[in-house]
Design goal:
The protein has about 200 residues and is α+β, with helices and mostly antiparallel strands. It has four helices and eleven strands; from the N terminus they run E-H-E-H-E-E-H-E-E-E-H-E-E-E-E.
């Protein structure tokens, strides 16, 4: 028969824990329950290290594909929604770029709508670390879309960038494991952002 997890008494506990449903196996892997949301406080990002803003001046510059720029200030931002709103409602923006949360709920995404021939990019301003802490520092992956890096590790995990006393593992690659019999296996970690991954 199936392994089944059901709600009782009209509750939502199983769904909120990501384990609602059934499976014809002896193990059920739950859905991801650690995700970015509008109400998530910035102080919870980066394993509780938060987001380091300038506090008084602009924190980062978005360079658009058409060559235009948008300077974003996060001095009063407390939540993910505050960051999204700061980008989307900036007086220089006029719907030229849109900030949102990725479909998997792990990253921020910037989408350029100008249609220019340049490259969408985010750079720092005034010594602020906010763009790096939000995972959006750098250039688009293509098509005018910049998908940021993971800023939440997950349950019982930490971000790779916070290991080694904060020095981190900036470019995860491949490991080759050899067991006592001499058998080897290559493990590709290039897509990992957290220790759990």
């Amino acid at each position: 028969s199936e392994l089944k997890v059901q709600e009782l008494g009209g509750g939502r506990t199983a769904a909120d824990l990501g384990i609602l449903g059934s499976i014809a196996a002896n193990e059920k892997v739950g859905a991801d329950v650690v995700k970015l949301g509008g109400d998530l406080r910035l102080s919870h990002l980066n394993d509780g290290l938060g987001v380091r803003t300038n506090g008084a001046q602009d924190d980062f510059r978005i360079t658009l594909k058409d060559g235009g720029t948008i300077d974003v200030k996060l001095a009063t931002a407390k939540t993910i929604q505050d960051v999204v709103t700061a980008v989307n409602s900036d007086s220089e923006n006029s719907n030229r770029v849109t900030a949102s949360i990725s479909g998997d709920g792990d990253k921020l995404v910037l989408t350029d709508t100008t249609g220019g021939g340049g490259t969408l990019a985010v750079s720092t301003l005034n010594g602020s670390k906010a763009a790096a802490d939000l995972g959006i520092l750098g250039s688009e992956q293509g098509g005018g879309v910049l998908t940021g890096k993971r800023v939440l590790a997950g349950l019982n995990s930490v971000l790779l960038k916070n290991l080694n006393g904060g020095s981190g593992i900036t470019t995860p690659g491949q490991l080759q494991l050899t067991d006592r019999s001499g058998a080897t296996a290559a493990i590709d970690l290039s897509g990992a952002g957290s220790l759990g991954e």
